[in-house]
Design brief:
Elements: E1 2-8, H1 15-25, H2 31-42, E2 47-50, H3 56-65, E3 68-72
Antiparallel strand pairs: 1-2, 1-3
Helix pairs in contact: 1-2
Organism: Flavobacterium segetis
Protein name: Copper chaperone CopZ
Length: 74
């Protein structure tokens, strides 16, 4: 499943927690790429990632805990 991470609406976002979450939930994303994608997301630009379908409900819950708004692409 592909999702589009739109923005993070937390007053003071935890960059390390967001990067760790992206690295764990994404298919074929390294830690360094997750850090880069986190920076892009926090700058206000959307980020497309691919997640494994079998873990989708827990992934979406983790994103909501981090106050990351997302949309499901496919």
């Amino acid at each position: 499943m592909k999702i589009n991470l739109l923005y993070c609406d937390t007053q003071r976002p935890d960059k390390r927690a967001i990067a760790k979450c992206i690295a764990e939930i994404s298919v074929n994303v390294s830690d360094s790429l997750a850090n880069e994608l986190t920076g892009i997301l926090l700058d206000g630009d959307p980020v497309d990632i691919e997640i494994d379908d079998k873990n989708s409900s827990s992934v979406l819950r983790d994103l909501r805990k981090l106050n990351i708004d997302y949309e499901i692409i496919e």
